[in-house]
Amino acid sequence: MKRVVTAAFSICMATVGLNLPAYAMSLDDAIAQTLARNPSLSSAQSAYNAAYAEQFVSLADMLPNVYAFAAETTSNTDAEFYGTGAINTAANIGDSDSDSYGVQVTQNVFGSGRYVNAFRSKRAEIRSKAKNLVNTEQQIILQAITAYLDVIRDQSIAAVNEQNVVVLSKHLEAVKDRFEVGVVTRTDIAQSEARLAGATSSYLAAQARLLGARAVYREVVGLEPENLNRPEDLPRLPDTIDAARTQARASSPTLAAAREMADSGRYSAYSAIGMALPSVTVTGSHTFTEDPSSLLVGTETEITSVQVQVKVPIFMGGRSVAGISAAGDYRDSLTRQVHAAANAVERGVIVAWNNYEAATAAIAARQQQIAASDVALEGVREESQLGTRTNLDVLDAEQDLLDARVNLVQAERDQWVAAYALLSSIGQLTGSRLGIKAAEVDTP
Questions:
Q1: Given 38, 48, 91, 317, which residue has the most CB atoms within 10 angstroms?
Q2: CA distance between the termini of the chain
Q3: Could you read off the pLDDT of 206-237 as tens digits, one per residue?
Q4: Residue 432: which residues within 8 A CB-CB, separation 6 or more?
Q5: Pairwise CA distance, residues 76 & 7, whole Å
Q6: Alpha-helix residue ranges (DSSP H) falling in 239-286
Protein backbone atom coordinates (compact mmCIF):
# COMPACT_ATOMS: atom_id res chain seq x y z
CA MET A 1 0.00 0.00 0.00
CA LYS A 2 1.25 3.45 -0.85
CA ARG A 3 1.33 6.28 1.62
CA VAL A 4 -1.96 8.02 1.27
CA VAL A 5 -3.02 11.50 2.25
CA THR A 6 -6.56 11.22 3.50
CA ALA A 7 -8.73 14.22 4.10
CA ALA A 8 -12.01 12.92 5.34
CA PHE A 9 -11.87 14.89 8.57
CA SER A 10 -10.89 18.03 6.69
CA ILE A 11 -13.67 17.54 4.15
CA CYS A 12 -16.18 16.98 6.90
CA MET A 13 -15.15 20.06 8.79
CA ALA A 14 -15.13 22.20 5.68
CA THR A 15 -18.54 20.89 4.73
CA VAL A 16 -20.14 21.90 7.99
CA GLY A 17 -18.25 25.19 8.05
CA LEU A 18 -16.63 24.81 11.47
CA ASN A 19 -13.94 27.06 12.81
CA LEU A 20 -11.85 24.77 14.98
CA PRO A 21 -8.78 25.94 16.88
CA ALA A 22 -5.30 25.33 15.53
CA TYR A 23 -3.94 21.95 16.58
CA ALA A 24 -0.56 21.64 18.25
CA MET A 25 0.05 18.05 19.44
CA SER A 26 0.77 15.52 16.72
CA LEU A 27 0.15 11.80 16.86
CA ASP A 28 3.90 11.21 17.19
CA ASP A 29 3.97 13.59 20.16
CA ALA A 30 1.17 11.65 21.83
CA ILE A 31 3.06 8.38 21.33
CA ALA A 32 6.23 9.91 22.79
CA GLN A 33 4.29 11.09 25.84
CA THR A 34 2.73 7.65 26.22
CA LEU A 35 6.13 5.96 26.19
CA ALA A 36 7.26 8.27 28.97
CA ARG A 37 4.13 8.51 31.10
CA ASN A 38 2.04 5.36 30.79
CA PRO A 39 2.13 3.56 34.16
CA SER A 40 1.26 0.16 32.71
CA LEU A 41 4.28 0.31 30.43
CA SER A 42 6.52 1.40 33.30
CA SER A 43 5.16 -1.43 35.44
CA ALA A 44 5.81 -3.97 32.68
CA GLN A 45 9.39 -2.71 32.33
CA SER A 46 9.99 -3.04 36.08
CA ALA A 47 8.51 -6.54 36.09
CA TYR A 48 10.85 -7.51 33.27
CA ASN A 49 13.85 -6.10 35.14
CA ALA A 50 12.91 -8.19 38.17
CA ALA A 51 12.53 -11.31 36.03
CA TYR A 52 15.87 -10.62 34.34
CA ALA A 53 17.63 -10.85 37.70
CA GLU A 54 16.16 -14.30 38.35
CA GLN A 55 18.48 -15.91 35.81
CA PHE A 56 21.43 -15.31 38.12
CA VAL A 57 19.80 -17.56 40.72
CA SER A 58 20.01 -20.42 38.23
CA LEU A 59 23.53 -19.40 37.25
CA ALA A 60 24.60 -19.60 40.90
CA ASP A 61 24.05 -23.37 40.88
CA MET A 62 26.90 -23.72 38.37
CA LEU A 63 29.33 -21.43 40.18
CA PRO A 64 31.50 -22.18 43.23
CA ASN A 65 30.20 -21.58 46.73
CA VAL A 66 32.91 -20.04 48.89
CA TYR A 67 32.54 -19.78 52.66
CA ALA A 68 34.84 -18.22 55.22
CA PHE A 69 34.43 -19.36 58.79
CA ALA A 70 35.87 -18.56 62.19
CA ALA A 71 35.31 -20.04 65.65
CA GLU A 72 36.57 -19.39 69.14
CA THR A 73 36.32 -22.04 71.86
CA THR A 74 36.90 -21.37 75.55
CA SER A 75 36.91 -24.20 78.12
CA ASN A 76 37.89 -24.77 81.76
CA THR A 77 39.30 -28.16 82.75
CA ASP A 78 39.27 -29.66 86.25
CA ALA A 79 41.13 -32.95 86.80
CA GLU A 80 41.20 -35.45 89.69
CA PHE A 81 44.26 -37.68 90.13
CA TYR A 82 43.88 -41.00 91.97
CA GLY A 83 45.45 -44.42 91.94
CA THR A 84 46.21 -47.50 94.03
CA GLY A 85 47.93 -46.51 97.26
CA ALA A 86 47.91 -42.88 96.31
CA ILE A 87 46.19 -40.03 97.96
CA ASN A 88 43.36 -38.68 95.86
CA THR A 89 44.17 -35.20 94.64
CA ALA A 90 42.05 -32.66 92.75
CA ALA A 91 43.62 -29.97 90.60
CA ASN A 92 42.54 -27.28 88.20
CA ILE A 93 44.30 -27.73 84.89
CA GLY A 94 43.28 -24.29 83.75
CA ASP A 95 41.51 -22.53 80.92
CA SER A 96 41.84 -23.52 77.29
CA ASP A 97 41.23 -20.98 74.52
CA SER A 98 41.36 -22.15 70.89
CA ASP A 99 40.76 -20.19 67.68
CA SER A 100 39.88 -21.74 64.33
CA TYR A 101 39.33 -20.08 60.99
CA GLY A 102 39.50 -21.04 57.37
CA VAL A 103 37.83 -21.17 53.99
CA GLN A 104 35.73 -23.77 52.19
CA VAL A 105 34.97 -23.99 48.47
CA THR A 106 32.27 -26.24 47.00
CA GLN A 107 31.83 -26.73 43.25
CA ASN A 108 29.34 -28.81 41.30
CA VAL A 109 31.54 -30.21 38.57
CA PHE A 110 29.00 -32.53 36.97
CA GLY A 111 25.24 -32.55 37.28
CA SER A 112 24.16 -34.61 34.25
CA GLY A 113 22.91 -31.41 32.61
CA ARG A 114 20.67 -30.51 35.55
CA TYR A 115 22.12 -27.09 36.27
CA VAL A 116 23.18 -25.98 32.82
CA ASN A 117 19.78 -26.82 31.36
CA ALA A 118 18.00 -25.07 34.22
CA PHE A 119 20.03 -21.97 33.39
CA ARG A 120 19.27 -22.31 29.69
CA SER A 121 15.58 -22.67 30.52
CA LYS A 122 15.63 -19.51 32.59
CA ARG A 123 17.50 -17.62 29.86
CA ALA A 124 14.91 -18.64 27.27
CA GLU A 125 12.15 -17.59 29.67
CA ILE A 126 13.80 -14.17 30.07
CA ARG A 127 13.97 -13.77 26.29
CA SER A 128 10.27 -14.64 26.13
CA LYS A 129 9.52 -11.98 28.73
CA ALA A 130 11.51 -9.48 26.68
CA LYS A 131 9.32 -10.24 23.66
CA ASN A 132 6.23 -9.92 25.83
CA LEU A 133 7.48 -6.52 26.94
CA VAL A 134 7.73 -5.50 23.28
CA ASN A 135 4.19 -6.76 22.74
CA THR A 136 3.00 -4.77 25.75
CA GLU A 137 4.62 -1.66 24.30
CA GLN A 138 2.84 -2.29 21.00
CA GLN A 139 -0.52 -2.73 22.71
CA ILE A 140 -0.13 0.46 24.73
CA ILE A 141 0.98 2.46 21.68
CA LEU A 142 -2.06 1.14 19.79
CA GLN A 143 -4.25 2.15 22.73
CA ALA A 144 -2.74 5.64 22.62
CA ILE A 145 -3.29 5.92 18.86
CA THR A 146 -6.87 4.69 19.20
CA ALA A 147 -7.56 7.12 22.04
CA TYR A 148 -6.03 9.98 20.03
CA LEU A 149 -8.16 9.21 16.98
CA ASP A 150 -11.26 8.65 19.09
CA VAL A 151 -10.97 12.13 20.57
CA ILE A 152 -10.63 13.68 17.11
CA ARG A 153 -13.52 11.58 15.80
CA ASP A 154 -15.80 12.46 18.69
CA GLN A 155 -14.86 16.13 18.46
CA SER A 156 -15.83 16.07 14.80
CA ILE A 157 -19.06 14.17 15.40
CA ALA A 158 -20.02 16.52 18.23
CA ALA A 159 -19.33 19.49 15.97
CA VAL A 160 -21.40 17.99 13.15
CA ASN A 161 -24.29 17.37 15.53
CA GLU A 162 -24.01 20.87 16.95
CA GLN A 163 -24.17 22.31 13.46
CA ASN A 164 -27.19 20.12 12.77
CA VAL A 165 -28.96 21.61 15.81
CA VAL A 166 -28.28 25.08 14.42
CA VAL A 167 -29.60 24.11 10.98
CA LEU A 168 -32.75 22.49 12.37
CA SER A 169 -33.38 25.45 14.65
CA LYS A 170 -33.33 27.76 11.65
CA HIS A 171 -35.50 25.30 9.75
CA LEU A 172 -38.07 25.30 12.56
CA GLU A 173 -38.20 29.08 12.55
CA ALA A 174 -38.71 29.05 8.80
CA VAL A 175 -41.52 26.52 9.11
CA LYS A 176 -43.21 28.64 11.76
CA ASP A 177 -42.98 31.67 9.49
CA ARG A 178 -44.57 29.68 6.66
CA PHE A 179 -47.27 28.50 9.04
CA GLU A 180 -48.14 32.10 9.82
CA VAL A 181 -48.89 32.71 6.16
CA GLY A 182 -50.81 29.45 5.82
CA VAL A 183 -48.35 27.57 3.62
CA VAL A 184 -47.78 24.68 6.05
CA THR A 185 -49.72 23.06 8.87
CA ARG A 186 -49.12 22.38 12.55
CA THR A 187 -48.06 18.89 11.56
CA ASP A 188 -45.04 20.36 9.79
CA ILE A 189 -44.17 22.34 12.91
CA ALA A 190 -44.47 19.22 15.06
CA GLN A 191 -42.24 17.28 12.67
CA SER A 192 -39.60 20.01 12.78
CA GLU A 193 -39.76 20.23 16.56
CA ALA A 194 -39.38 16.46 16.84
CA ARG A 195 -36.31 16.47 14.58
CA LEU A 196 -34.79 19.36 16.55
CA ALA A 197 -35.34 17.53 19.83
CA GLY A 198 -33.76 14.40 18.37
CA ALA A 199 -30.81 16.41 17.06
CA THR A 200 -30.33 18.01 20.46
CA SER A 201 -30.33 14.58 22.08
CA SER A 202 -27.78 13.31 19.55
CA TYR A 203 -25.58 16.32 20.23
CA LEU A 204 -25.67 15.73 23.99
CA ALA A 205 -24.87 12.04 23.46
CA ALA A 206 -21.95 13.02 21.22
CA GLN A 207 -20.65 15.35 23.91
CA ALA A 208 -20.85 12.53 26.46
CA ARG A 209 -18.91 10.22 24.15
CA LEU A 210 -16.32 12.94 23.67
CA LEU A 211 -15.87 13.29 27.43
CA GLY A 212 -15.42 9.53 27.67
CA ALA A 213 -12.85 9.55 24.86
CA ARG A 214 -10.96 12.36 26.57
CA ALA A 215 -10.89 10.34 29.80
CA VAL A 216 -9.46 7.31 28.00
CA TYR A 217 -6.83 9.49 26.32
CA ARG A 218 -5.85 10.97 29.67
CA GLU A 219 -5.56 7.48 31.17
CA VAL A 220 -3.38 6.10 28.37
CA VAL A 221 -1.26 9.11 27.36
CA GLY A 222 -1.04 10.80 30.73
CA LEU A 223 -2.01 14.27 29.50
CA GLU A 224 -5.17 16.16 28.74
CA PRO A 225 -6.11 15.92 25.03
CA GLU A 226 -5.61 19.56 24.18
CA ASN A 227 -5.09 20.85 20.63
CA LEU A 228 -4.75 17.47 18.95
CA ASN A 229 -3.50 17.70 15.39
CA ARG A 230 -5.36 15.65 12.79
CA PRO A 231 -2.87 13.18 11.24
CA GLU A 232 -2.25 13.38 7.52
CA ASP A 233 -0.04 10.59 6.17
CA LEU A 234 -0.96 7.00 6.86
CA PRO A 235 1.92 4.72 7.93
CA ARG A 236 3.62 2.65 5.27
CA LEU A 237 2.12 -0.83 5.15
CA PRO A 238 3.02 -4.08 3.35
CA ASP A 239 1.96 -4.15 -0.28
CA THR A 240 -0.04 -7.38 -0.02
CA ILE A 241 -1.67 -9.44 2.67
CA ASP A 242 0.72 -12.30 1.93
CA ALA A 243 3.66 -9.98 2.55
CA ALA A 244 2.06 -8.93 5.83
CA ARG A 245 1.59 -12.54 6.91
CA THR A 246 5.20 -13.37 6.06
CA GLN A 247 6.47 -10.39 8.02
CA ALA A 248 4.27 -11.29 10.98
CA ARG A 249 5.70 -14.81 11.13
CA ALA A 250 9.20 -13.32 11.21
CA SER A 251 8.69 -10.29 13.47
CA SER A 252 5.65 -10.79 15.69
CA PRO A 253 6.72 -10.52 19.35
CA THR A 254 3.77 -12.69 20.37
CA LEU A 255 4.97 -15.56 18.21
CA ALA A 256 8.61 -15.00 19.19
CA ALA A 257 7.68 -15.10 22.88
CA ALA A 258 5.85 -18.40 22.41
CA ARG A 259 8.87 -19.89 20.62
CA GLU A 260 11.22 -18.84 23.41
CA MET A 261 8.90 -20.36 26.01
CA ALA A 262 8.88 -23.60 24.02
CA ASP A 263 12.69 -23.61 24.21
CA SER A 264 12.45 -22.93 27.94
CA GLY A 265 10.15 -25.92 28.38
CA ARG A 266 12.51 -28.14 26.40
CA TYR A 267 15.51 -27.20 28.55
CA SER A 268 13.40 -27.59 31.69
CA ALA A 269 12.58 -31.16 30.65
CA TYR A 270 16.30 -31.89 30.17
CA SER A 271 17.01 -30.47 33.62
CA ALA A 272 14.36 -32.70 35.16
CA ILE A 273 16.01 -35.75 33.60
CA GLY A 274 19.31 -34.65 35.12
CA MET A 275 17.74 -34.84 38.58
CA ALA A 276 17.59 -38.64 38.20
CA LEU A 277 21.21 -38.99 37.04
CA PRO A 278 24.53 -38.92 38.93
CA SER A 279 26.15 -35.73 40.14
CA VAL A 280 29.69 -34.94 41.24
CA THR A 281 30.61 -32.30 43.80
CA VAL A 282 34.12 -31.26 44.83
CA THR A 283 34.67 -29.62 48.21
CA GLY A 284 37.99 -28.13 49.30
CA SER A 285 38.79 -26.54 52.64
CA HIS A 286 41.74 -25.09 54.52
CA THR A 287 41.53 -24.70 58.31
CA PHE A 288 43.99 -23.09 60.74
CA THR A 289 43.61 -23.80 64.46
CA GLU A 290 45.56 -22.15 67.28
CA ASP A 291 45.22 -23.82 70.75
CA PRO A 292 47.28 -22.29 73.56
CA SER A 293 46.65 -23.63 77.10
CA SER A 294 47.19 -22.50 80.70
CA LEU A 295 50.04 -25.02 80.95
CA LEU A 296 51.96 -22.95 78.44
CA VAL A 297 51.83 -25.77 75.96
CA GLY A 298 50.13 -24.75 72.71
CA THR A 299 49.52 -26.16 69.26
CA GLU A 300 48.96 -24.66 65.82
CA THR A 301 47.30 -26.87 63.25
CA GLU A 302 46.68 -26.34 59.53
CA ILE A 303 44.48 -28.81 57.68
CA THR A 304 43.87 -28.80 53.93
CA SER A 305 41.36 -31.26 52.54
CA VAL A 306 39.74 -32.07 49.20
CA GLN A 307 36.63 -34.21 48.96
CA VAL A 308 35.05 -35.60 45.82
CA GLN A 309 31.46 -36.70 46.34
CA VAL A 310 29.53 -38.72 43.78
CA LYS A 311 25.78 -39.03 44.25
CA VAL A 312 23.78 -41.61 42.32
CA PRO A 313 20.01 -41.41 42.89
CA ILE A 314 18.58 -44.84 43.57
CA PHE A 315 15.22 -44.14 45.14
CA MET A 316 13.73 -40.70 45.73
CA GLY A 317 10.16 -41.61 46.56
CA GLY A 318 9.08 -41.15 42.94
CA ARG A 319 10.04 -37.48 42.94
CA SER A 320 12.34 -37.66 39.94
CA VAL A 321 9.92 -39.72 37.86
CA ALA A 322 7.06 -37.35 38.62
CA GLY A 323 9.27 -34.35 37.89
CA ILE A 324 10.30 -35.76 34.51
CA SER A 325 6.68 -36.51 33.60
CA ALA A 326 5.48 -33.04 34.63
CA ALA A 327 8.31 -31.31 32.79
CA GLY A 328 7.57 -33.31 29.65
CA ASP A 329 3.90 -32.38 29.72
CA TYR A 330 4.79 -28.74 30.30
CA ARG A 331 7.18 -28.85 27.35
CA ASP A 332 4.48 -30.32 25.11
CA SER A 333 2.00 -27.67 26.25
CA LEU A 334 4.41 -24.85 25.40
CA THR A 335 5.13 -26.39 22.01
CA ARG A 336 1.42 -26.38 21.20
CA GLN A 337 1.23 -22.78 22.35
CA VAL A 338 3.55 -21.88 19.48
CA HIS A 339 0.96 -23.15 17.00
CA ALA A 340 -1.81 -21.32 18.85
CA ALA A 341 0.21 -18.09 18.81
CA ALA A 342 0.92 -18.48 15.09
CA ASN A 343 -2.80 -18.88 14.39
CA ALA A 344 -3.66 -15.86 16.53
CA VAL A 345 -1.05 -13.70 14.81
CA GLU A 346 -2.27 -14.70 11.36
CA ARG A 347 -5.85 -13.99 12.38
CA GLY A 348 -4.80 -10.56 13.62
CA VAL A 349 -3.14 -9.77 10.30
CA ILE A 350 -6.16 -10.88 8.29
CA VAL A 351 -8.63 -8.94 10.45
CA ALA A 352 -6.56 -5.75 10.44
CA TRP A 353 -5.91 -5.96 6.70
CA ASN A 354 -9.56 -6.44 5.82
CA ASN A 355 -10.66 -3.74 8.25
CA TYR A 356 -8.23 -1.37 6.57
CA GLU A 357 -9.46 -2.29 3.10
CA ALA A 358 -13.09 -1.93 4.15
CA ALA A 359 -12.51 1.45 5.81
CA THR A 360 -10.57 2.74 2.80
CA ALA A 361 -13.40 1.76 0.47
CA ALA A 362 -15.94 3.23 2.90
CA ILE A 363 -14.18 6.60 2.85
CA ALA A 364 -14.54 6.91 -0.90
CA ALA A 365 -18.17 5.80 -0.72
CA ARG A 366 -18.99 8.21 2.10
CA GLN A 367 -17.41 11.10 0.24
CA GLN A 368 -19.61 10.34 -2.75
CA GLN A 369 -22.59 9.99 -0.40
CA ILE A 370 -21.91 13.42 1.10
CA ALA A 371 -21.66 15.03 -2.32
CA ALA A 372 -24.87 13.37 -3.52
CA SER A 373 -26.75 14.09 -0.27
CA ASP A 374 -25.73 17.74 -0.41
CA VAL A 375 -27.06 18.08 -3.95
CA ALA A 376 -30.23 16.20 -3.00
CA LEU A 377 -30.82 18.46 0.01
CA GLU A 378 -30.54 21.59 -2.07
CA GLY A 379 -32.95 20.15 -4.61
CA VAL A 380 -35.47 19.07 -1.99
CA ARG A 381 -35.38 22.51 -0.38
CA GLU A 382 -36.07 24.21 -3.70
CA GLU A 383 -38.86 21.76 -4.52
CA SER A 384 -40.33 22.33 -1.06
CA GLN A 385 -40.54 26.03 -1.81
CA LEU A 386 -42.46 25.15 -4.97
CA GLY A 387 -44.78 22.86 -3.03
CA THR A 388 -43.73 19.62 -4.70
CA ARG A 389 -41.91 18.33 -1.62
CA THR A 390 -43.13 18.10 1.95
CA ASN A 391 -41.45 19.37 5.09
CA LEU A 392 -40.72 15.76 6.05
CA ASP A 393 -38.83 15.29 2.77
CA VAL A 394 -36.58 18.21 3.70
CA LEU A 395 -35.98 16.84 7.19
CA ASP A 396 -35.14 13.41 5.79
CA ALA A 397 -32.68 14.91 3.32
CA GLU A 398 -30.97 16.85 6.10
CA GLN A 399 -30.74 13.68 8.18
CA ASP A 400 -29.23 11.78 5.24
CA LEU A 401 -26.51 14.41 4.90
CA LEU A 402 -25.81 14.35 8.63
CA ASP A 403 -25.53 10.56 8.66
CA ALA A 404 -23.16 10.63 5.69
CA ARG A 405 -20.88 13.14 7.43
CA VAL A 406 -20.83 11.16 10.67
CA ASN A 407 -20.16 7.91 8.79
CA LEU A 408 -17.27 9.55 6.94
CA VAL A 409 -15.65 10.61 10.19
CA GLN A 410 -16.09 7.09 11.58
CA ALA A 411 -14.62 5.49 8.44
CA GLU A 412 -11.59 7.77 8.64
CA ARG A 413 -10.97 6.81 12.22
CA ASP A 414 -11.42 3.10 11.41
CA GLN A 415 -8.90 3.33 8.58
CA TRP A 416 -6.21 4.78 10.83
CA VAL A 417 -6.84 2.32 13.65
CA ALA A 418 -6.78 -0.64 11.25
CA ALA A 419 -3.52 0.59 9.71
CA TYR A 420 -1.78 0.74 13.07
CA ALA A 421 -3.38 -2.52 14.19
CA LEU A 422 -1.81 -4.11 11.13
CA LEU A 423 1.58 -2.67 12.09
CA SER A 424 1.12 -4.14 15.57
CA SER A 425 0.26 -7.58 14.19
CA ILE A 426 3.48 -7.67 12.14
CA GLY A 427 5.64 -6.42 15.02
CA GLN A 428 6.33 -2.93 13.70
CA LEU A 429 4.42 -0.78 16.22
CA THR A 430 7.20 0.04 18.69
CA GLY A 431 8.84 3.32 19.49
CA SER A 432 12.07 2.25 17.83
CA ARG A 433 10.30 1.00 14.68
CA LEU A 434 8.31 4.22 14.43
CA GLY A 435 11.40 6.32 15.09
CA ILE A 436 9.82 7.84 18.22
CA LYS A 437 11.65 8.21 21.53
CA ALA A 438 10.02 8.62 24.90
CA ALA A 439 9.41 12.24 25.74
CA GLU A 440 11.45 13.88 28.46
CA VAL A 441 9.20 14.47 31.43
CA ASP A 442 9.76 15.80 34.91
CA THR A 443 9.46 13.05 37.48
CA PRO A 444 8.16 13.98 40.93
A1: 38
A2: 44
A3: 999 999 999 999 999 999 999 999 998 999 99
A4: none
A5: 99
A6: 241-251, 253-274
